[in-house]
Amino acid sequence: MNIGEQVDKLQSEIDQKRQEIRSDNYSTSIGEWISLYQQGEIEIHPEFQRFFRWSDYQKTKLIESILLGIPIPPIFVSQREDGIWDVVDGLQRLSTIYQFVGILKDEDGKQIPPLILQKTEYLPSLAGKIWEDKEHPEGSLKGFTPTQRLLIKRAKIDVNILLKESDPFAKYELFQRLNTGGSIATPQELRNCILVSLNPNLYRWIKQLSGNENFKSCIALNEKSLEEQYDIEILCRFLILRKIDESGLKEIVDVDAFFTEKIQEIANNPDFNLEEEQAAFEKTFRLLGECMANDSFRKYEVQKQKFSGGFLLAPFETIALGIGYNYQQYNATCAELREKILEMWSNPDYTSAFGRGKDARTTLPKLIPLGRRLFTV
To answer: Which pTM does this prediction carry?
Structure first.
């Protein structure tokens, strides 16, 4: 291919992709943003709240910026078929505004306590202020005056709209590009956000499964890991890897990108069998919960003959995925299962793949086939 053909090919790709994305943008007053939320015409996905880390001081700084006339970055939304806007980027900005004016609700529809502002460098008198003192609506030492409330309502924030005519995947590509490296703490949390945005019903199903008592006892995560929804990440790994073609494991280039791609495939797959996956999940963790509990995925020290430490991915990827793959035929007793797990920790195929510094790209192609061979009856 000569230089001219390469240039033409690139331009053709650019032209094609630009045609697949339809967008619009304009300025919207905060009063209009408030009205959209109150009328149910915008979906901010309250499930996302747990993935973001804004402190009350950071929220106060946003309100301060609005009062001082400092431009606020635009909000990106995706327009659904029913006309409702899905927030793609700008959740925390909108949530802060909605919480401050006292209308923000959590994922269960319960009112979140209104934001109380803090002292800032430029506006120290913001300390202790609320949107409105109901007992003194004209203003008090506690609440904003009508003039100050109007100042907020009339301030404008630009909106960029990805129209419903756009390619369906444009929304999720945009979400990833805008949020990667932003206020989300981990790749797992980004994937969870994408899952909520892509298929909220599937996310809720996964969230419900994560409440399984046997599953919780087996992974035994600490409070920080649960706050970051690492349990959801572990569960997604189970769904992604349980029946995966072993040959595909050798083609993984970037592990984070691999899991992100696969969870999107599941979310977009109308034939994904929820009943089968739930049956495999429940049987796997019922067996492990009854027989091993929180020792299921901890390190076994062969010389000391005891389990120690916390949850580890390597034993999970071997044991849980091995049982899950064979769940229909696997009926070992607790003694048999425990013995098999102890043997695994002395198996050279396992010990050569397990350990600090091991790259998941090289361990997954070894551990998953091993688990499928070991945990079969």
So the answer is: 0.66
